[in-house]
Amino acid sequence: MKAVILAAGEGIRMLPLTENKPKPLLEVLGKPLLQYSFEALPDVVDEVILLVGYLGDQIRDYCGNEFLGRKIRYVEQKEKRGTAHGLWICREFLGNERFLTYYADDIQQKDDLKACLKYPLAISVSTVSDPRKFGVVSVDKNMRVLDLVEKPEIPPSNFVSTGIKVLDERIFKYFSPHRENGEHYITDPLRGLAHDCEMIAVPASHWIPIGYPEDLKKAEILLGKRAGIR
Description:
Blueprint: E1 2-7, E2 27-28, E3 31-32, H1 33-39, E4 47-52, H2 56-63, E5 66-67, E6 70-76, H3 83-88, E7 99-103, H4 110-116, E8 122-127, E9 135-139, E10 145-150, E11 159-167, H5 187-196, E12 200-203, H6 213-227
Parallel strand pairs: 1-4, 1-7, 4-6, 8-12
Antiparallel strand pairs: 2-3, 5-6, 7-11, 8-11, 9-10
């Protein structure tokens, strides 16, 4: 099985830490975020398509052609055109099989990725106090996804996407409009796919989002507590 790890962003909200280093290589407890992303991969994943962009040569140098037992194929996103475009340019390497995709700059739990793989189409969700900063997911009583909306001012629910998704080639049938900032968001194709096909929202157990510099310290505290060292 293949996994697409998206690691092309500039990490603007992490400045000044990302002036000379890509966000996925920022460290928590002495380990780059990207390494946590690889360690979370289920055993069934044998190849990673790694989308790089901003300071991508540093990521290539860090991971090489194989990292933690997984073969890596690099795809370069040369312009800042968003997550939907990033996934689209990986399409030729995915074939017609199901695949995992998530971001290189959050800390995920392997069990959460494995839980999503139990379903043909799935998205990992978590509850947060302020959903306005995230992609918000609406579900029915059976946790089937009814709708997704990006950073709404009035959130329809407290469920937000953690970034983990199980998809297949059907995602590429759906259009992602050009936003004012020049980007194409993956939320739009996901919304279309969920309307037409059953997509299950799977609650996450240990998602640590990394959006701002202070989140690195928060992540160290959380991971330290889990490891029993704080």
